[in-house]
Write a structure and sequence with these properties.
Length: about 230
């Protein structure tokens, strides 16, 4: 196994499947199965999920809602997704620990570096909801921060595309896929991989970002075993 400890970043939208909003039971089951397979290989896994399938603070702010209030609503949306994934993982026999940037008893304890690392060492999949616990920060930034705190080998950004391209491959058939990029190259090419705050955190702490297609069966296991199927930024 190439990567012993990972942080898996999933978008809230990925949980919608073919739906227009909300959580698809089929996608939830598929993701839990992929995570279980990687866990069974001995990989230590922490997960951060966005909340865009339920609510986005920025979208609320653009329609006149208070930005801080909207961001807290978005954090609660990430917790709903985190609870859904926790439930499905437990159903499939995977022990989990749900932590959050916002402490909401009795649902979850507040995240701390010590709690996360202890749960990982106990063999649990750690799901961290609630963003950073602060407004104005995205779940991209939360995933970078949590990955650094738990000393993950890298961030795995699970998307519906098999890596980073020169332009959107779903719109541009001539788009070129990159196998490997430096942080500087990614910035120079203005590739939208993560938001700039998250990207800067990764660059400053030498934390690689690996972008891959999470929707293809077996891909998560392939990545942790060292098979190069996506794009790595380091």
């Amino acid at each position: 196994m190439k990567y012993k400890r990972i942080l898996l970043k999933l978008s809230g939208e990925s949980l919608m499947g073919e739906q227009d909003y909300g959580i698809s039971p089929d996608m939830l089951s598929q993701y839990a199965k992929e995570i279980k397979q990687a866990k069974d290989k001995g990989c230590e896994i922490a997960i951060v999920i966005g909340g865009g399938n339920i609510f986005r603070g920025l979208q609320g702010a653009s329609k006149g809602m208070d930005r801080v209030q909207g961001d807290y609503m978005g954090m609660l949306a990430t917790l709903i997704n985190s609870m859904a994934l926790q439930g499905e993982l437990e159903k499939q026999g995977v022990k989990t620990e749900l932590l959050s940037g916002l402490a909401i008893e009795p649902i979850c304890k507040e995240h701390s570096r010590a709690r996360s690392k202890e749960a990982l060492q106990e063999g649990k999949v750690v799901i961290i909801g609630g963003g950073t616990g602060n407004p104005y920060f995205t779940t991209d930034t939360a995933s970078a921060l949590r990955a650094i705190e738990i000393e993950a080998d890298l961030i795995l950004k699970g998307t519906r595309v098999d890596g980073i391209y020169s332009s959107d491959p779903e719109k541009d058939k001539t788009a070129t896929k990159y196998s490997e990029l430096s942080f500087k190259e990614a910035l120079d090419k203005r590739l939208k991989i993560m938001d700039l705050t998250a990207f800067a955190l990764c660059q400053e702490n030498n934390l690689p970002i690996y972008v891959f297609d999470m929707n293809k069966e077996g891909n998560l296991q392939k990545v942790i075993m060292g098979e190069h199927i996506g794009t790595i930024v380091k």
